[in-house]
Amino acid sequence: AAKWTYTGPEGEHHWPKHYPYCGGAFQSPIDIRSELLRFDPTLRPIEVQNYNLSPNEQLTLGNNGHSVQISLPSKMHISSLPHRYTAAQLHFHWGSSSRPAGSEHTVNSKQYAAEMHVVHYNSDKYPNMSMAVDKSDGLAVLGVLIEVGDFNPAFEQFLRFISGIKYRDQRVQISGFNIRALLPARLDEYYRYDGSLTTPPCYPSVLWTVFRNPVTISRKQFLSLATALYSSHAQDSSPVPLNGNYRKPQLADSRVVLVSFKE
Ligand SMILES: NS(=O)(=O)c1cc(-c2ccccc2)cc(-c2ccccc2)c1
Ligand SMILES: [Zn+2]
């Protein structure tokens, strides 16, 4: 597959050359602006199942060159949407130590330090992730805004292993832990809109749920996320730091953002 980056000659403005959808409609992320919001009383609290994983389970923590990701077991799923959406993986987008603002979604132009995405696919209609990834009802991603503040013990469950995946394509096995603890307390307050993958190939196949309330991690935890990783392979002579891996907000076009809360 063609290489893509977040800056330089393969940066996001060049993505459409190799990935046409990236230049199309319904792109993500967006700036979630107050004037776009519409309260929708039919939006139910998000219900997740089997997120509390036993420490006897093994998860793969990996550096894919664009992000740090954790593979998720298929028993994890969202049960409150019209179809069952089965978990596939979670990953992060972040800024840098010099610019600790790297969320993809922004709220009234406020960019948070980082953002977590828990990626699910419609397992009622599609046999696997690959068949779902380019279908309009294929994916559901839970977005969690992250700000620097109190230490977060749930994040520590994988951050303490991040030095083992410094370079592209490195992977380590970690013990299962409660993935629900990575989400904000309130799953009933969220923004909802139809969008896309925020990385190439940018398929417009994502039902986005961005929780209203951010979670916090400590500055030390943020710095380990923002400074531990490289997008280059271990043997590469010139290591390329992995940070600033966020796409800028896209045109909302005439999209309305539904909200599950009143004020
Ligand atoms: N940011 S995102 O949520 O739209 C996203 C979803 C998926 C994704 C994952 C599995 C199935 C289908 C889509 C993969 C990425 C990705 C991030 C870094 C590098 C390459 C790909 C990003
Ligand atoms: Zn993402």
Derived from helix and strand composition plus strand pairing, the structural class reads mainly beta
| Parts with pLDDT < 50 across at least 5 consecutive residues | none
The radius of gyration is 17 Å
Bound molecules: 3,5-diphenylbenzenesulfonamide, zinc ion
The helix count comes to 4
- Helix proportion of residues, in percent? under 10%
Hey, roughly how much beta strand do the residues contain? 25-35%
- Residue-averaged pLDDT: 97
Report on the biggest sheet. Answer: 13 strands, mixed
Number of strands: 16
Q: Whole-Å distance between the termini?
A: 45 Å
Order of helices and strands: HEEEEEEEEEEHEHEEEEHE
Task: Name the shape in a single word.
Answer: globular
Task: Report on this structure.
The chain has 263 residues and is mainly beta. Helices cover 9% and strands 29% of the residues. The chain is built from 4 helices and 16 strands. Strands 2, 3, 4, 5, 6, 7, 10, 11, 12, 13, 14, 15 and 16 form a 13-stranded mixed β-sheet that branches. It has a 3-stranded mixed β-sheet with strand order 1-8-9, with no helix packed on it. Strand 6 (77-78) and strand 7 (85-94) form a beta hairpin. The chain is globular. The termini are far apart. The model has no long low-confidence stretch (mean pLDDT 97). 3,5-diphenylbenzenesulfonamide binds at residues 64, 66-67, 88-89, 91, 117, 119, 129, 133, 139, 141, 197-199. Residues 64, 66-67, 88-89, 91, 117, 119, 129, 133, 139, 141, 197-199 line the site of 3,5-diphenylbenzenesulfonamide.
